[in-house]
Amino acid sequence: MKSIAISTEYITLGQFLKIADVIDSGGMAKWFLSEHDVFINGELDVRRGRKLRNGDVIEIPQFGKFLISGEE
After folding, report:
1. Domains of the chain, with CATH numbers?
2. What's the Cα-to-Cα distance from 58 to each of 29, 42, 48, 63, rounded to whole Å?
3. What is the pLDDT of residues 32-61, one digit of tens each?
4. Tens digits of per-residue pLDDT, 17-28?
5. Phi–psi pair at 28, nearest 5 degrees
6. Cβ neighbours of 58 (radius 10 Å)
7. Distance between CA atoms of 26 and 2, rounded to whole angstroms?
8. What share of the chain is helix, strand, coil (3-state, %, to 5)?
9. For the chain, what is the largest distance between any 2 Cα atoms, rounded to a whole number of angstroms?
10. Contact call for residues 70 and 54 (beta carbons, < 8 A)
């Protein structure tokens, strides 16, 4: 599981996809979410504005599993 460190209270799912190098630009988020399943804490979610906080687990089949962690 890859850890993605954030320095703010939360990031959006769209921002996460770019930070995790799943997509190349923020503009691809809407397309990506329409074509791929994204599970947040075990539940399917396709809202690019979904807020991700410290401790959230994101799983994207064929891309991997990610953990949101606070800045160290």
Report:
1. 2-70 (3.10.290.10)
2. 15, 8, 13, 10
3. 999 999 999 999 998 999 999 999 999 999
4. 999 999 998 889
5. -85, -10
6. 25
7. 20
8. 25, 35, 40
9. 33
10. yes
